[in-house]
Design brief:
Elements lengths: L1 H25 L8 E5 L3 E2 L14 E6 L2 E7 L2 E5 L7 E9 L7 E3 L6 E4 L7 E4 L5 E3 L6 E6 L8 E3 L8 E3 L15 E6 L5 E6 L12 E9 L3 E8 L4 E9 L2 E10 L1 H5 L6 E9 L7 E12 L1
Parallel strand pairs: 1-9, 2-10
Antiparallel strand pairs: 1-5, 3-4, 3-6, 6-7, 6-8, 11-21, 12-15, 13-14, 14-21, 15-20, 16-19, 16-21, 17-18, 17-20
């Protein structure tokens, strides 16, 4: 009988210890205090030497006190469990690559935005503070203005197989950011009977290879799909290599096209031309493509 009593006492003790362990494990931990960071949008500081300040930052990577907090689509309200409400926060701007909304990448050519929170726990800090121009190109970035349709002549020359040519438009031009002027944009109209438009830069560009990112930035809107890519000028031949096809877009948009695969894919190329092309999609109606502010950006 004594043995049975000892056994049941042992069971009761074990059960009590188990309940205590479960109770202890389930006790909620006190949440760390946070500072909320509200970011509506990030824009680019005007710099005439580097072309238009048109930008489209879609997301931010957030880091503070050596801790990476993740990537957030804009606009965002981000809780930061920092140890110091005056901590410095660094934002790495992200863009939509090759027109794919699900393909967000840090844009290495924009400097990260950095400043102290100067706040208190539970408060909300809004950035940008006083001025909307908060980003700049990295000082080491090469920014080459390919075509902005402002000067005489157009860098993109229609190829022999193109059914139409450029028109410089002033009525439906790209709406320049505040403080900038933009007198015209490039327009291509493809009427019934015209099927193909293709234009190649008259200038060839020496671009970095070996996996280095090379971006083509530009603004566009269109009633038809169109493609962009490179023409690799090799010692014994030239190869036209497409990079991306954009769908029709009713409103002016900013695009960031990464040419790294096409450029690095031709390590022996002497240099590269850029090309743009389109095929009319509506048999009984005209299609139109508007573009502006082409620039190459690379290190």
């Amino acid at each position: 009988m004594r043995n049975h009593r000892l056994f049941f006492n042992a069971l009761n003790t074990a059960a009590a210890l188990g309940i205590l362990a479960l109770t202890t494990a389930c006790e909620p931990k006190e949440a760390k205090p946070v500072v909320y960071l509200s970011i509506d949008s990030l824009t680019l500081k005007p710099d005439p030497a580097r072309g238009t300040s048109s930008a489209h930052v879609r997301s931010v990577w957030v880091e503070s006190e050596g801790i990476y907090y993740g990537v957030f689509p804009l606009p965002a309200r981000i809780p930061l469990p920092v140890s110091n409400p005056n901590a410095t926060v660094r934002l790495y701007p992200g863009v939509e690559v090759n027109g794919i909304s699900s393909f967000q990448s840090q844009y290495e050519f924009y400097q990260p935005y950095e400043r102290a929170l100067n706040s208190s726990f539970g408060s909300t800090v809004s950035w940008p503070p006083a001025t909307p121009a908060v980003l700049e190109y990295e000082p080491w970035a090469n920014v080459v203005i390919v075509e902005d349709f402002e000067a005489a002549g157009i860098q993109f020359a229609p190829s022999p197989r193109s059914d139409t040519v450029w028109t410089r438009t002033t009525s439906e031009r790209f709406p320049a950011p505040s403080g900038e002027s933009n007198s015209s944009s490039g327009m291509v109209i493809m009427r019934p009977g015209q099927q193909i438009f293709e234009a190649i830069t008259q200038q060839a560009y020496t671009l970095p290879r070996g996996g280095s990112n090379v971006y083509l930035e530009f603004n566009y809107k269109s009633t038809m799909p169109f493609s962009l890519g490179v023409v690799a000028n090799q010692p014994v031949q030239t190869t036209q290599q497409p990079t991306v096809t954009f769908r029709d877009k009713a409103q002016w948009s900013k695009a960031y096209v990464n040419l790294v695969t096409e450029v690095s894919g031709f390590p022996n190329a002497l240099n590269f031309n850029l090309y743009i092309g389109a095929v009319r999609t509506r048999p009984d109606k005209a299609d139109t493509l508007w573009v502006d502010n082409f620039k190459l950006v690379y290190q």
